[in-house]
Amino acid sequence: AGPFTMSLTYFFLSFFCSFLRVKEGSMTAMGEKNVINFAKVWLFLLFAIWITASLLGSGMGITSALGVLTLASFVASVLFLTVSFSRDDQEAQKKRIWKNIKENWGDYFDLIKGLLVLMCSPAAFIYVVLSFLNQCVRRFFCFPCSKKHSNDLNEDGLPAENKDWVTRDARLWLEEFKSWNLTSVYSYAIYWGIGIMTMQVLVAQLTLLFLSWLIETTANYSLNTVSIIMVVVGLLMFLLPPVPGVPVYLSMGIVIVAIGRESLGLVWSIVYAIALSLVLKLLACSLQQKLIGQSLSNSVYVRQQVGINSRFIRATKLILAQPGLPIDKVSILVGGPDWPTSVLCGIMQLPLLPILAGTLPVLFIIVPTLMMASFTYLAPLEENDMELYPWADTAATLAAALTALVQLAALLSATKYLELTIKTRGDELDAMPIDEEVKKADDEVKAKNDAYDEASKWHKVPLCMKVALVLSVLFMVVSTYLFLLLQGLCFVEYELTSTISGDLKGNALNLVRPFGWVGIGSFTVSCFFFSIFTGWAKKESSKYMEEKVIVKLV
Question: Using an 8 Å Cβ cutoff, are 264 and 274 in contact?
Fold first, then answer.
C-alpha cells in the first residue's frame, strides 16, 4: 500500500493547492475564496472518511492509509490556511473578509469550529506549549540573542509581552478562542466524534464481521441458494441508514465467485455477480424510495429533519426532477450516499422509473468494487503448491485504487453540481414553494434552540458542568485519534475473506485489540459526561422558556 499511499498524498496536495488557487484581483475576494475553498477541502476529507469506512475489509491496506492521510490532512489544511492568512497583503482586508463570510456562512461557523476542535486539538495544544517555552526563553533572557519585549501595553488591550506567558501570536489565537460560543462548539465536536465512531467502528467493523460470517456460512451452499440469501441480506443491509453499498458489493464478489467459479467459470461468475449486484441495488432503491421515503413524506417531522425547505435540498429536487439523464442528475444518484439519496427521492415524491434509470451508471462503482473482492479471493488460491491466479494480487490492487478514485469522483461530482445549481439557478430555487408546515415546525424548534443556547452560554455554565463538557471533548478526541490514526493498533488485521472461527479463534470480540478497547472506553466515557451536561442544559433551557412566558404574561 506504500506507493498507493504516496499517490493519495500527492493527489490530496494537488487537490488542495488547486482549491486554494485564486484568480480574483481584489484582496477581499481572495480571502473569501480561500476560506470557502478551505471548507471544500474539509468536505473532501469527510468524503475520505466515508470511503475509508466503505472499503474496510478489502484487504488491500487502503483503509489504514486513507485514515492516516485523512487525519493528517485535517491538521495540515489548518496550518496551510493559517500561513495563508498571515500574509501582510491580506491583513488590511481581514475584517471586511470575515464580515462578508459571516453574513453568508455564519450559521455554520460553530459546526465547523467543532470539527476543528475535534481534529486539531492536539496540534493546538502542542503549539501553545511551544509558545510557552518560546516566551520563557524571551522573558528570562536564556540566550544573548533572545528577543527583548516592551513594557508597554499593546494597543489591542493585551498584556505587555514581557508579562505574558505565551507569545503575542499565541495570545491572539487564545483570545479568539475564548470569544467562541464554547458550549456550542464543544457540543458539535462531540457530535462529530459520534458520527466518526459510528462510521469507523459501529458500521464498518460490525458490517465486516457480519459479512465475513455470512461468507463462511454459505461456503457449501448451492449457487441458487446463495444468490437468494445474498439478495435478502443485501436488501436488509441497504435498508439500514448508515450502511454503504460497497461492503455488499465486496461480499457479492467473494461469495458468488467462490461458489459459481466451478459451474459458470471465472468470467461468467463475475459477470453474474455484477448483474446480481445491479439488480439488488435497483431493488433496494425502489424499496427505499417507495416503502420508506414516500411513506414518510406525510410526516412533518421527517420533512423537517431532512431540511426540505433548505436551498441544498431544494437544489437537489430541482436537479433530480429533470427529465432524461443529465450529468448532474446522474452524479447525485450515483455519488450520493445510498440510503439518504433514495429515501430523499421518496420524500420529495419523485417518479420511480426515471430515478432508477439515472441510477444505472452505478455500474461504474459496482464493477471495480466487485472485481477487487473477486481478485482478492482468487489471489491466495493454490493447486499443487502453485498459484492458480498469479496475476490476481496485482489486479486486486489496481481494482482497489480504481474503486477509491471512482467513489471519490462520484462524491465530488455530486457536490460540484449541487453547488453550481445553488449559484446559477437561484431564481428557480426562490420560486419553489415553501413547505409551510415545516416552516412552522422550524420556527418552534428555533425558539427551543435559542432558549437552549441562551441558557447554556459558557459564562452561565457552572464549573462542574464545564468540567463535564471539557472532559467529554477530551475523551472524544482520544477516541477519534485512536480510530483514525492508530486503527491498526485498535483492531486485528481482518478481511472479508477471514473467518471468525479461524482468525478470531471463534470469538468475535478478539477483533478488538487493547488500544481498541481504550478507544471504545474513551468514547463511552465521553458520551457519559456529555449526557450529564445535556441533561443539565435541557433543564435550564426549560426554566428559561418558562420564565420568558411568565415575563410576557406580566
Answer: no
